[in-house]
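U., I forgot to send this yesterday:
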Amino acid sequence: MTLPVFNVAGKPENHDCHIKEYLTGKADYTGDHMPGRKLFGAMKHATIAHGTIKSIDATKALNETGVKAVITYKEAPTVLNQTILYWGQPVVGIVADDWYTACRAINLVDVTYDELPSITEADEALKPGAVLSGKREGTNLAPASFTRGDVDAGRQQADIELETIQPWTTTYQHSPIESYQALAWWIGDHLYVYQGSQNLHGNKSAVVNYLEMPANKVHCFARYLGGGHGARLSNWESGIAAFMSKAVYGLPVLFRETKKHNMLFHIRQYEVKSTYKWGAKNDGSLVYLDAQNWVNGSGAGMSTVMRTTWIIPHVKWEGAGIYINVPDRGSWRCVADPPFALNMTMAMDKLAEKLNISPYEIRRKNMMPVDMPDQDSPYRYWGSKEVNECFETVARESGYTSKWHAPGQNNKRTDGRLHGIGIHCHTDSHGSVAGTSMAGIVLMQPDGTALIEAGCTKPHNSPTMLVHFTAETLGMKYEDVFVGDWGNSDTTLNSGSHGGSAFTGAGGSAFVSAARDCRAKVFAAAITKTPLKEIAGITVDDLDAKDSEIFYKPDPTKRITFRTAMNGTPPIAGYGTGWAAAGGGTGGGGLQRPLFGLPVGTAVNAQSAAASVAEVAVDTDTGEVEILGHWNATGCGRVIFYEGVMSQFGSGTELQIAQALYYGDVYDYATGAVIGSQFTETQLPTTMDIRPSRHNLYPIEGDDHSAPLGAHGIGEPVVGSYACILSAIYNAIGVWVDPDHGACNPDKVLKALGKAT
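Result:
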């Protein structure tokens, strides 16, 4: 494929626009503001799973030296609730002179409850007559279903059938470096809030609703984040801080959670349990799939991983989201794709073994080609579909086909450990380019430099990415485009949320549009300046730009700089909005350039893709797993900010290892409490567990014809590919390590080998 040539985007030498702030310690995180001039807030959490608050006695806390105020559901009814739906729910806030006093004082508050029956195990919630959690009206379930073709007809066509039950995947909390926190203060009837949020303007909207205030009196700021992983989308921290500040007459209050509270009580990854009934031909062609998926703590939409990666003529899928009395599940770096991808990969490998073919062969046989439309109504094509190239890349670079062997056979290494290799690929649910409600502003300065005004935060190098989009579209040098005001709801437009890999499409298309608008206005000024004004009949359409110079296309020797074009010209503002979803669909977008004979504007799907191979050595005496090699490829569309892409890629690779070998919560199902985490019962990986020389990263470019400059989001797909590690362990030892509610740590490996109980 011949890709359009970029002058700015994709260049490895283009640095992060905010690297100086990071290196000099000037990056302003939420807690950095107002040093020595703020009070501190801490939160008490519920110790029951279900019930109502009967009484709150804060007398002892208020008598503690330094305590300034207490807030409950009575003072803050929109962010605190009298009804308790899970263990760890926030119930009482304390404001004090310092944070340690506030943390100590929450233990002096006496809360009594009228306790109600609770349900804390998802399997129990599926049974008839189960206790209701109270999270949904009259039920614990949110059912969903999907069909394609006729599964009964598919059964008649199948030569081989297999049913597999994939147990519950595990929950985990990413424990960001910066815990959940917000700083709020009042000036008169105006509220000001700083929060480490991945959605600045969404945060403002939520605070407006929490406080029932006019939007022009709420001023929100969100800039740097100490870790996002897609979970920093909640807004209640800002609401809590606002009510706390109100309780102390508008003084600034920094509310923040302790590391312990952050880990035990806050949003964690979904759990998924699956049943797959497969039918296939003897040559490995999939004929039908009859599947069930249960998702703990979420609605149960049909998994994109399963629906859009493989050619399966007949599909019947049923599922249910399950709502029980445990801490909330939510967006955690790729949302539900990782557990879905894990279950699908294990089930497909089992089918391959029954067919007596390799996991590579069954995937190669059934993968959708790039020019095949969606198998379901409205049968759209993809703006780009790189999963095939990703898959072949990791297979080739890892030497998978030459290294693969039958599970547990002929694989002993010279050091006595067992060798294994696993492969995985999927089309991901992320990478959408829809963003009509998003907008951007590009300002051209009198000196011929440009500023972007971005309503975004910095969890994923977002402002820097927008500078790349803007410089490439304007035809300017990278060093001539700067970040102006950003992360400020008063001076910027909504550039979109930074969760779900949607920002590249939503924010990127908004700033491409804004840069086009700005460019046209600058060109209009340029044709009034010497030497361009002396060209008879010249119009804006006769001009182009490169390296911060504007030139006459019929005679490129006739050119002027942007600085000259702006000489004597008032500052110019370009405004643009994100591109329409063109009717929605699977991560929808509209074609910006023709593809497969389809005209511009045609509605297409816009998603990313990933493939991974892991090679491992398993010590059957200790259960320890060493990753010998790791190969990851992700479909990027076009690479815009190279350093940012590789950063996302590398962190996703680390999360694969963490999910497969380390992460896992421990629950007391009698109470619904999280009693352990990866900090205690299991471990977090360290730099000693991540050896860069063994990790191979391949950004696969495919030029998405529906996305801004051909680039779609890539933050999540690689995270969802951790199934390759579990497949590699199986290939080594010949038995599957049960991933039920936990990672494949040494104890679980030994248990699978029959050496532990």
